[in-house]
């Protein structure tokens, strides 16, 4: 598995440091919110990021999730984002934070933001671990970004290729021989 990796883009230490600083930014943005925070994660790519991030947030919070797929099987180019399983607490009049792994073409986040805005939250903010600035569309806003990365296929720290590589403790570029 590790032999499929071309190069490590973001080390385990750099991820830990940035997640800590993102949590501080998020805490500062929501400091006045006495009622707590509702965190909605986009499954399953963001689950590792979510786990590390919420352990750094010293506020009351609830967690919900929405499963969205835009990569089916062994492909490396996104298709149409399709919502799957959804488990959400009440969002009306709540401060909601979407946690996603990567902003690439924007299809997933556009779908999730639209769905959650229909629930009339008090506020809706988004944090992404990674953003590909050359591809991220202007109409999909994010409030917090972990890292900007080049336009390569990335795996690790929850991100996968055909269900594999999520367990790598770093972000890496997948070798070109895997491109499908």
Describe this structure in words.
This protein starts with a strand and ends in a 6-residue tail after the last strand. The protein is globular and about 50 Å long. Strands 4-3-2-5-6-7 form a six-stranded mixed sheet, sandwiched between helices. The protein has a three-stranded antiparallel sheet with strand order 1-9-8, covered by helices on one side. By secondary structure, it is α/β, with parallel strands linked by helices. The protein has a single domain, classed as Rossmann fold, CATH 3.40.50.2020. The chain is 21% helix and 32% strand.
Task: For the structure shown, list the relevant keywords.
180 residues; alpha/beta; 3 helices; 32% strand; three-stranded antiparallel sheet
Distance between the termini: 17 Å
* Helix-strand makeup class: alpha/beta
Beta strand count: 9
Rg result: 16 Å
CATH architecture group name? 3-Layer(aba) Sandwich
Uncertain stretches: none
Q: Which oligomeric form is depicted?
A: single chain
Shape: globular
Rounded average pLDDT? 87
Q: Which CATH C-level class is it? A: Alpha Beta
N-to-C series of helices and strands: EHEHEEEHEEEE
Total count of domains? 1
Q: How many strands, which pairing sense, and closed or not: the largest β-sheet?
A: 6 strands, mixed
In short:
With 180 residues, the chain is α/β, with parallel strands linked by helices. It has helices spanning 12-30, 47-54, 107-117; strands at residues 5-10, 37-43, 61-69, 82-87, 95-103, 123-131, 144-148, 154-155, 171-174.
